[in-house]
Amino acid sequence: MRIISFNVNSLRAICKKFDLSAQLKQYNPDIIMFQETKFSSEEDNPFYLENFENFINVSKIKKGYSGTMISTRIKPISVSYSLDGKYNDEGRIIILEFENFYLINSYTPNSKEDLSRIPYRMDYDLTLAQTMQKLSRTKPVILGGDLNVAPERIDLKNPDTNQTNAGFTIEERDSFKNILKISNTIDIFRYFHKDEVVYSWWSYRFSARTKNIGWRIDHFLISEILKNKVNQISYLNEILGSDHCPVLIDINL
Question: pLDDT tens-digit profile of 242-251?
């Protein structure tokens, strides 16, 4: 099973720049998860792969805001667009049930520059962790997406000057650890690559991507039971068009 996760920062915008379908198809994915699609409605979707089915969650409170999508060639058993009935208004969650696992696509809320959304973010994280815990009682869970946190100092270029900035506050990093603990999951990239410096997001300012001044905020968390089934986890830095790059995981399921 090969799964790609990508915050596209507007799927329509990136598809106008180049043929994203062809770009991603070359990696032979079974499932592609998008975050920050920014659709006003499901009809806005420009992405198409033959024999893939699309599941789209659009923000209900603001057009062209947030949004998630999963494109899969494997038909799911069930689909949900909320966390136990919560957080279904901003288009941030899609949960697909497959025969051997649950797949969660999350575009986790940003705490905002003034950190005013930290309480909302903390509750979202806790609800996500509890949902994962509940699902894992029946099947292993894979969570992928833009989780909007650099968990460790190694996960961003300048940790010392960012400790009070959204995405690297102690509250957010502790919340990430809490998700792992409650859901019994692991950050699979860091599990295999303990000392590797890699980023998945770069500011559009100051030529940050060219200088590789970035953050690793896009992740795959998997149930502990699956860790020895992973063949590969990598960041596809060669794919441009967004301020993020995709993450790819190969796993035997």
Answer: 999 999 999 9
